Amino acid sequence: MAIALSTLFLSAYNWRTFFLIFSSEDYVDMARAKGLSDRDIERRYILRPTLPTIITNFALILIFLWTGAPIMETVFNWPGLGRTLFQAVGLFDIPVIVGSTVIFAYLLAITVFVLDFIFALVDPRVKIGSEGNKQ
Fold first, then answer.
1. Whose CA is closest to 63, among 125, 3, 130, 131?
2. What are the residue boundaries of the structural domains of the chain, listed by start?
3. Are 83 and 70 in contact (CB under 8 A)?
4. At how many degrees (to 10) do helices 48-75 and 2-23 cross?
5. Which long-range contacts (CB under 8 A, 24 or more apart) does 105-113 make?
6. What is the Cα–Cα distance from 45 to 22, expressed in whole angstroms?
7. What is the DSSP string of the chain?
8. Fewest beta carbons less than 10 Å away: which of 25, 37, 43, 133?
9. CB neighbour list of residue 65: distance below 8 Å, 6 or more residues apart
10. pTM of model > 0.85
11. Could you tell me if 22 and 49 are in contact, meaning their C-beta atoms sit under 8 angstroms apart?
């Protein structure tokens, strides 16, 4: 919870910054001049280009939470996979170190795999399959 809350608030500040950067673009001013509602402008012209950055940042937060667990569990002496990994490193327990590394690697691979599919849904520039290879 400590890692998640601190990271969430820092990321919310970053997301707000990206939102403000894209809201000052010329095409947003043009949409306002056309008379579109603020909600439509936020959804179509600001959130759409900001969303890939926000999703990537969220995926990196998940990875950081998983890999930050050994430090947090060791500092607060909580039982868990992170604490077990830390103790295994101190005892040179190779099977536990390799097993924990494989678990973290699978979590990373699954996160990146799901992130690719989410990008295909969110970003119209990303194509799935052989459609993107046509010339």
1. 3
2. 2-129
3. yes
4. 160
5. 107/63, 107/66, 108/63, 108/66, 111/59, 111/62, 111/63, 112/59
6. 8
7. -HHHHHHHHHHHHHHHHHHHHHHTSHHHHHHHHHT--HHHIIIIIIIHHHHHHHHHHHHHHHHHHHHHHHHHHHHTT--SHHHHHHHHHHHT-HHHHHHHHHHHHHHHHHHHHHHHHHHHHH-TT---GGGGG--
8. 133
9. 3, 4, 7
10. no
11. yes
Residue 25 CA to residue 41 CA, distance in Å, equals: 12
Encode the chain (135 residues) as per-residue pLDDT tens digits: 777 787 788 888 888 888 888 888 888 888 889 988 888 888 888 888 888 888 888 888 888 887 777 888 888 888 888 888 889 999 999 999 999 889 889 988 999 899 888 888 887 677 766 655 555
| Chain position carrying tokens 């930050």 | 68
Taking phi over 0 as left and psi of -120 to 50 as alpha, with beta for the rest, 77 belongs to left
Closest CA to 50 of 17, 9, 10, 27: 17
